[in-house]
Design goal:
The protein has 190 residues and is mainly α. It contains nine helices and no strands. It is globular and about 50 Å long.
């Protein structure tokens, strides 16, 4: 997608859509407050590694080997379920006592985020002469949207929800991430 306006609209729309990474960022904002902004570089790095790897290495093989796409979806779904279980178990009791979401969690979740496939194979024009400029613009949009999700989480922390309701944010995040895992597994059959 080489039209800058369409590129920007596509990237912002997809980044703003709730997903596993956004759920982690919102949950981190609700749990850790402003300290959560430290997670944004992990999100940017996760997307860049995924987009470049998929765009130049994995993409051609997925098209040639149908079973590889299914295996990747199952791997990603398994990881998302692991994150969901971890959030569920640690959620309510540890919301205010420790850092619930780590850099590694955001990096790996973003690396395995199904949105990266769409960015790599249809939105970010990696193979064009100005591909690096598009990657730089993409990175800036990731920072802006990621900061927005964290800010929503911080608003929850600061009273948008009651103390009791706020305690369930990690559990709700776990359910959302678990639903994404289920969708990845079931998508080919729907």
């Amino acid at each position: 997608m080489t039209d800058p306006v369409l590129f920007t609209l596509a990237v912002l729309t997809l980044l703003a859509t709730p997903g596993p990474t956004n759920t982690l960022l919102l949950t981190a904002g609700a749990a850790d407050g402003a300290r959560s902004f430290r997670l944004i570089p992990a999100e940017v790095a996760g997307y860049l590694v995924a987009i470049v790897t998929i765009g130049f290495v994995v993409g051609p093989y997925v098209a040639e080997i149908p079973g590889l796409g299914l295996a990747l979806r199952l791997l990603i779904a398994g990881y998302l379920i692991w994150i969901a279980v971890r959030l569920w178990r640690r959620g309510v009791t540890n919301l205010a006592t420790d850092r619930l979401i780590r850099l590694r969690d955001v990096f790996v979740t973003t690396l395995l985020n199904p949105k990266a496939l769409l960015f790599a194979l249809g939105i970010v024009p990696l193979h064009e002469s100005d591909g690096l400029a598009y990657l730089a613009a993409f990175s800036l949009m990731v920072v802006a949207v990621g900061a927005g999700w964290i800010t929503i989480g911080i608003s929850i922390r600061r009273g948008l929800l009651s103390e009791t309701a706020r305690g369930f944010v990690p559990c709700i995040g776990a359910l959302v991430i678990g639903a994404f895992a289920g969708y990845l597994v079931m998508a080919p059959f729907l």
